[in-house]
Design goal:
The chain is of the alpha/beta class. It is 53% helix and 11% strand. It has helices spanning 19-31, 43-52, 70-77, 98-107, 119-131, 166-171, 178-215, 221-241, 250-266, 272-290, 296-309; strands at 11-15, 36-40, 57-61, 63-64, 67-68, 88-93, 111-114, 136-138, 143-145.
Length: 316
Amino acid sequence: MNTRTFYDRVDLLLVSPRTQNSASLRQTLADLEFREIRTASSNADILKALETRPPELMITEFDLPDGDIHETINDIRHHRVGANPFMSIIVTTWQPSEALVHQVLDAGADDLLVQPASRGQLAKRIETLVFNRKPFVVTSNYIGPDRRNSARPGTQKIEGLDVPNILQSKVMGGDESAASQNALDAAIAKVNLDKIIRNGAHIGYLTKQILSAYEQKNVDGPLVGHLRGLISTGEDSIRRIRGTKYELIKTLFQTIITVGQRLELAFNSPEGKDLQLLPELAMSIRLALKDGGATGNTADQISAAISGALPQQDVA
């Protein structure tokens, strides 16, 4: 078995706004035989680097001049930025807190390393990503490494997905051409389909919360969050369904966005037809996804739900 490693082949992005810290970490990485090290000092720099080419490994401080790193990581994992949502990511911090740990892990980072860290600690973390990386999971609001020991009582177990580990391929001297790109494309397609299904379930949950809030006249902050969540979930679904078997139900997601926006605009005085249409749309989405797309009776239900309950100008 070939166990030789080629860390010098890895494209590594090192992100640190502090020159001294960056120089120290860069030297440690050089000692570990990393040679291709790009540097950045802000979220804006990261986005520019991702436009050029996605690194196989990003090591970044949590606090950056233009805000902390968790939103950028979340955008990477949800494939809103960059070409590889599965790139390996280690976050470093000099001031750990419970809130910071939750932000880093909930964003989908692979690991959090508290500084100052020794050469051996950093090497061990990188080796784990190379040889023992966790599978990914896809939920309504999370894409990233699976850290669960078991499913919570009363919840459905979500199977993990073994995503392409391009870092491992580079370190082990593997080929990075068409085969790797095909594996990456296939994994992205699988995540998109899984996320659409999770989004459908989340729309159902949000719909129940919104209707309950109006029924109980709890027109407050949580309702604002549920309406915005409904809109953003619909928008995420439209972004993901292009070219999939679910593309035929794009109008459903567009309509639920419209209803969410109308409710958000009216807020204290919602139209009765919007509150009536919301659960019908949520159910139609659920049926269409269960049916594998808008076919047969499901298509008829979708057409009736849209044309019969929403003003024509709103779905044009």
